[in-house]
Write a structure and sequence with these properties.
Layout (H helix, E strand, L loop, with lengths): L2 H26 L3 H28 L7 H32 L4 H16 L2 H5 L4
């Protein structure tokens, strides 16, 4: 599978996962303000996750790497993606506070979307050529 096809598939799977989680979280968080926070978090999570996956998938195509070097590269990039997600979560907390969005819904939503979509990454990374 090419990188572009893998990224497209990951984007579609991520959108489905985030949509499903958003529907379930709407049952937990009932107010309109909480729904807005969940929707904003969903859009942000989708953009960050696809960007992080592009970073990882691009590393899978580099030629001339030994298996050990390739594994180390992927782990470093995966760690960078985790740090990026953490920074985005912290910055989103500040943004949500400034926008006067409910922090509980905003942060629980973003963390949930990040976690669930991160679980799909390994399955698609194995097929990038």
């Amino acid at each position: 599978m090419t990188v572009a096809r893998s990224v497209g598939l990951f984007a579609a799977i991520s959108a489905a996962i985030i949509l499903t989680a958003w529907i379930i979280l709407r049952l937990v968080f009932a107010s309109d303000e909480q729904h807005q926070a969940l929707l904003l978090a969903a859009g942000l999570a989708f953009a960050v996750q696809v960007g992080a996956f592009v970073l990882l998938a691009g590393s899978n195509r580099r030629e001339g790497l030994t298996a050990d070097t390739h594994t180390a590269d992927v782990l470093v990039l995966w760690g960078m993606g985790a740090v990026i997600r953490l920074v985005v979560l912290v910055l989103f907390a500040v943004l949500a506070k400034v926008m006067q969005l409910p922090l509980d819904a905003a942060l629980v939503g973003l963390a949930t979307y990040f976690f669930l979509t991160m679980m799909a990454e390994p399955f698609l990374l194995n097929h990038v050529r």
